[in-house]
Design a protein that fits this description.
The protein has 2 domains: 281 residues, Aldehyde Dehydrogenase, Chain A, domain 1, CATH 3.40.605; 192 residues, Aldehyde Dehydrogenase, Chain A, domain 2 (3-Layer(aba) Sandwich). Helices cover 38% and strands 22% of the residues.
Length: 496
């Protein structure tokens, strides 16, 4: 166990990589310090991958796909491994609940609750082994008498996850990829490698064949080696839009596959029949989750001009009551930002908002009485113009902007006036009105009276919020290639 300022780290081999079914020594002595955002002290250190380590992991995954047993198992056989992984994930809930707050600042109770979804994701994809049509008969149109569509694994997957919700995002990449028959190189974030190390231990425990899951931690520059390696058939990435654009460009050079879950600047339209106090309670409460470090956060609050001040006042009142502090304190409602860089970013945007002319209604600084840690106050700006930077650029922190609209159609126009299209919500007691407004929004998800981002159905964005979907059946299809087969006569054992 690794030493830490807060006890022990519940991972066994932070100094090694998991490659080819073995814990291997890194090719260099380079390490990455993981800093506890509440104390600014080193929590633990992990090995840092160099190009040779990435190449070894890709080689192991390539061999496991090309000549190993994994892609040749039945979907039902692979599903049994997924069920075992789900059970093992559930058993590691408390370990992850100790790691996650010390990497990203999430409240410990929220971490425990989120782990239930992680376990369920593996069970969900295991169930698809019996219901999804991996092989389907079709009628040929250009000759032949019997056709098949086979949905086969895309191959070797480079899965790149961020630091904010790593265990969840690993699950929605790894589970469908494994069911499809892919092999995976999981590249952990240098800020939050703990979840990936836990998954490596689980892979070893459940007996995944060698090379099916390989785990390394690397910074951005070395991570590009994974994206550029021609032996990697697909990259699945969650992170910033800027990084996603770079990955898409690299993959385009070699016509590699990629799915990208990127940034957002999501809008909540509060219609005139919505209860302002109820909407404010929901929006303020949601923004405290992981200190607003969520790509689908509803950070642009669009409301009619005559209700603008009431919305701002209600949000400010809610935020002024939020207790910020130690994520292991049961009375705390919001923890720290994950890194010093994130706090500097949020503080920078507060200054930008003030310079643009926004009215600071709550927050904007560091909590009084907290001398250490990367804490910020939850912040509300009013009288924001949608063209301003604080309304157009992703802040990734607990900063809400309230934007006045002339009427309902103007609210829709404002909501759609963004390079992003990840998430949205419509606040109204009338579901028919919510639907009528929601269908006009250019967004991958539209919720009713809350943030309804739902990986169980499928999550992803329009425009620069990404390409493809994670979760649901669409999340499995992202790891499959369609193969058309046409025969002179029906082969024995074919589907249908």
């Amino acid at each position: 166990m690794g030493a830490t300022n807060a006890g022990t780290v519940p991972v066994e081999r932070p100094d090694k990589f998991y490659i080819g079914g073995r814990w291997v020594e890194p090719t260099s002595s380079d390490t990455i310090d993981v800093i506890d955002p509440a104390t600014e002290q080193v929590y633990f250190s992990v090995a840092e991958a160099r190009n040779a380590d990435i190449a070894a992991a890709v080689g192991a995954a390539r061999s496991a796909f090309d000549v190993g047993p994994w892609p040749r198992l039945t979907h039902a056989e692979r599903a049994e491994f997924l069920r075992a992984i789900g059970t093992a994930v559930e058993e590691r809930t408390e370990d992850v609940a100790q790691i996650w707050p010390r990497e990203s600042g999430i409240l410990v109770g929220a971490a425990r609750s989120a782990m239930a979804e992680v376990s369920e994701a593996y069970s969900y994809y295991a169930d698809l082994a019996g219901s999804f049509a991996f092989e389907e008969p079709v009628a040929p149109t250009g000759g032949g008498s019997f056709g098949l569509i086979r949905r086969e694994p895309v191959g070797v997957v480079g899965a790149i996850v961020p630091w904010n919700v790593p265990m969840t995002l690993i699950a929605y990449k790894l589970a469908p990829a494994l069911l499809a028959g892919c092999t995976v190189v999981l590249k952990a974030s240098p800020e939050a490698p703990g979840a990936a190390l836990v998954m490596a231990e689980i892979a070893e425990r459940v007996g995944l064949p060698d090379g099916v899951l390989n785990v390394v931690t690397a910074d951005r520059e070395v991570s590009e080696t994974l994206v550029r390696d021609p032996r990697v058939d697909k990259v699945a990435f969650t992170g910033s839009t800027a990084a996603g654009k770079a990955i898409a460009g690299i993959m385009a050079e070699r016509v590699g596959r990629c799915s990208l879950e990127l940034g957002g600047k999501s809008a909540a339209i509060v219609l005139d029949d919505a209860d302002i106090a109820e909407a404010a309670a929901v929006l303020a409460g949601a923004e405290c989750f992981l200190t607003g470090q969520i790509c689908g956060s509803l950070t642009r609050i669009i409301v009619s001009r005559n209700r603008h001040d009431a919305m701002v006042e209600s949000l400010a009142a809610r935020f002024s009551q939020v207790r910020v502090g130690d994520p292991f304190d049961a009375d705390v409602q919001m923890g720290p930002l994950a890194t010093r860089r994130q706090r500097q970013r949020v503080e920078g945007y507060v200054e930008i908002g003030l310079s643009e002319g926004a009215v600071l209604a709550a927050g904007g600084g560091r909590p009084v009485g907290i001398e250490r840690g990367w804490f910020v106050e939850p912040t509300v700006f009013g009288k924001v113009d949608n063209s301003w930077r604080i309304a157009q650029e992703e802040i990734f922190g607990p900063v809400l902007t309230v934007i006045p609209a002339k009427d309902e159609q103007d609210a829709v126009r404002i909501a759609n006036d963004s390079i992003y299209g990840l998430n949205a919500s419509v606040f109204t007691p009338d579901a028919d009105r919510a639907r009528a407004v929601g269908v006009q929004l250019r967004s991958g998800t539209v919720g009713h009276n809350d943030n309804r981002a739902d990986f169980g159905i499928g999550f992803g964005g329009f425009k620069q919020s990404g390409i493809g979907r994670e979760g649901g059946v669409a999340g499995l299809q992202a790891y499959l290639e369609n193969k058309t087969m046409v025969f002179d006569e029906r082969p024995a054992g074919s589907g249908g």
